[in-house]
Amino acid sequence: MDYKKLQQFIDSVVKTGAAEVIVESEDMKITIRTQLPANTVATTQVIAQPAVAQQPQVAVTEQVLSENKDEKVNEIDESKFHVVKSPMVGTFYRKPAPDKPPFINVGDEVKKGQVLCLIEAMKLFNEVEAEVDGKIVKILVDDASPVEFDQPLFLIEPV
To answer: Does one domain contain both 105 and 137?
Structure first.
């Protein structure tokens, strides 16, 4: 199964508030369980089991933003800014190489299609490009930090 589609499916399940979803095929079984105790971090657990019982079980756990982080993101008036979000899970890099300057800084003018950062996933470096012309207002992630799918990375004030 494609990881990006799996991540989108997990996000859909979390948004619906379903407690458990099970999907089975001939060669795989996926169980998604959500637990939402009051005032705690929401977690989603995905367990992929091969149909043959002798093969090992693979477990992946995803941490969803806590209520405090949600509040900070919501404090910013998103209608005024364009939010650039991570297209995948990986490691965020502001520079093309350790000895090179960052692609962009706060206050820089950017053009649609301009590279803003790199996200490393499985030893591949993927460029994240600006989706609009504008000015970088805020960089929301530290260099060399892990990022989640759909996590906000930049705020751009459109021109």
So the answer is: yes
